[in-house]
UniProtKB/TrEMBL annotation:
<protein>
    <submittedName>
        <fullName>Atrophin-1 multi-domain protein</fullName>
    </submittedName>
</protein>
<keyword id="KW-0732">Signal</keyword>
<feature type="signal peptide">
    <location>
        <begin position="1"/>
        <end position="17"/>
    </location>
</feature>
Length: 165
């Protein structure tokens, strides 16, 4: 059976729509990240590994939360970078399609070596501005596929918070 590429991408992305609870660390109140934890929108720039019966793969995704509560197990949207494998976020401008527009991140070169919660770059979603921080530890787990036989685990490389608090 042959499916158009757009449909395959849609189906692949939709498997990420059934998340399980996500542990999110509580930021230290002295960090710059703590000041933005109540942001209207939060986007996690992730590297994901999908394990299924047929094959394993890696990809990169932007996971959007429209409310300040990122401890929810239901993100507002997940956009996947169209690439053969995972990409580097640091040192590049990346554009990821989300339902509410194109999310464009500009993570500084070398930012992958920063300590957790250090400012790593900026981003925007249409006209809304974001500030991005190094993460490296937050994880997201999604189940999908036939009978839940496919599991995707994403690790947040960077976290971006809207400055429209």
């Amino acid at each position: 059976m042959h499916l158009p590429l757009a449909l395959v991408v849609t189906l692949a992305t939709s498997t990420l729509a059934i998340p399980a609870p996500t542990p999110v660390p509580t930021p230290d109140s002295s960090s710059p990240r703590a000041a933005l934890r109540g942001s209207a929108r939060n986007v996690y720039l992730t590297t994901c590994t999908t394990r299924s019966l047929s094959a394993d793969s890696t990809s990169s995704s932007a996971i959007l939360y429209n409310s300040g509560d990122t401890s929810s197990s239901n993100p507002s949207d997940v956009g996947t970078v169209l690439s053969e494998s995972a990409i580097q976020w640091a040192g590049y401008t990346r554009r990821v399609p989300l339902g509410s527009g194109i999310f464009e991140s500009k993570i500084d070169k070398g930012a992958e070596t920063l300590e957790k919660s250090q400012i790593a770059g900026s981003a925007k979603l249409r006209r809304e501005q974001f500030v991005c921080f190094r993460d490296g530890v937050s994880t997201f787990r999604f189940a999908g596929g036939v009978l839940g036989a496919e599991t995707t685990v994403c690790t947040a490389e960077f976290w971006c918070a809207s400055i429209a608090v």
